[in-house]
Amino acid sequence: MKITGVELRTVRMPLVSPFETSFGVQRERLAVLVRVVGTVSGAAAGGDRKGREVQGWGECVAMEAPLYNSEYAAGSLEVLRRYLVPLLFREVERTGGVTAENVESVLAPVVGHRMAKGALEMAVLDAQLRGSGTSFASYLGAVRDTVPSGVSVGIQPSVNALLDVVGEYVTQGYARVKLKIRPGWDVVPVEAVRNRFGDLLALQVDANAAYSLADVRTLARLDEFDLLLLEQPLARDDLRQHAELATRLRTPVCLDESITSVRAAADAIALRACRVVNIKAGRVGGYLTARRVHDLCLANGVPVWCGGMLETGLGRAANAALAALPGFTLPGDVSGSDRFYERDITEPIVMDDGQVAVPTGAGLGVEPIKDVLERFTVATEWVQA
Ligand code: OSB
Ligand code: MG
């Protein structure tokens, strides 16, 4: 497609309740959205020489502050406006157009900034698929029309408060519960949840890199609670220590922050640093690379699941499509919109009986509702060719 303009929009959405992890508390979601506008010509436009106008949406999952990884929303916005979007325009000028499949190589001169790159690729892919009437799910290779829906539960002020919150999600029907842990909030709350809800609750924990190898005795105490996995216990750049830790635990180690690319995933598998991989498209630079990480894991017999980053309905719809690929054998953090937002910017993604439906419409299959989007927008700019 030929790209004529790109809108960069910042939205600020209140969360239904504070979300606390080992790296901080969030009360709202500040996110950068990308809208790509262009034209498709040739067969995709039904032979119309002039070309048909299309648009597509992308969501940048970088948080407001650089606490989960080094990216942050204002930095993503800057690198998009100043480097990434201009690279795309230059490619259109040089070759007459871009496809989602070549966005990654066009943006490759810029080092890092995978979440910003992933958002731009997602917008181009959405536009391209809307142009051809194909859904994200069928394009990516989905094999299911619903996906099991898990919920990520933040650190709570007390164990009693945690039991109430988990009880509410269990009652709603979530297929799996993930508890955020950190030193001082681990064995006691996990034991309390296991005792209250019983052996049948699918339960896992996420440390967001808050521990060190010196904590091996504490982490080994989690073995008795029959967890599905322990997510990212150690530093993001330490595969060797994760491999060492994995030999000392019965609970499978899963990596999130450490898996920044297909190469990182291949290294982690070869080093036995993890037995499970959390796939987040933004963290690896987009849905096309996410699919390649999935393919690699599937070929190596490593189960994967789809992580979340408090996405709006746009990213949530794309995640549901990704989670429908065959290697996603564990429930993901693909919860209903109402887990985080009273009002989503799209029609809400709904969890029903522990499942989320994979959208079937062209592209993402959802789009922002104009007045809701405007209500949450705090800044908009237009980048032109
Ligand atoms: O580590 O999975 C994580 C949210 C923000 C940053 C990192 C993580 C998370 C979550 C929330 O756990 C998952 C969700 O969006 O439901
Ligand atoms: Mg995580």
From TrEMBL:
It comes from the Bacteria. Residues 159-252 form the Mandelate racemase/muconate lactonizing enzyme C-terminal domain. This is o-succinylbenzoate synthase. The keyword Transport does not apply. One of its GO terms (molecular function) is O-succinylbenzoate synthase activity. Its cofactor is a divalent metal cation. Gene3D superfamilies: Enolase-like C-terminal domain, Enolase-like, N-terminal domain. Keywords: Lyase, Magnesium, Metal-binding. It comes from Nakamurella flava. The keyword Acetylation does not apply. Its EC number is 4.2.1.113. GO terms for biological process: menaquinone biosynthetic process. It is an enzyme of class 4 (lyase).
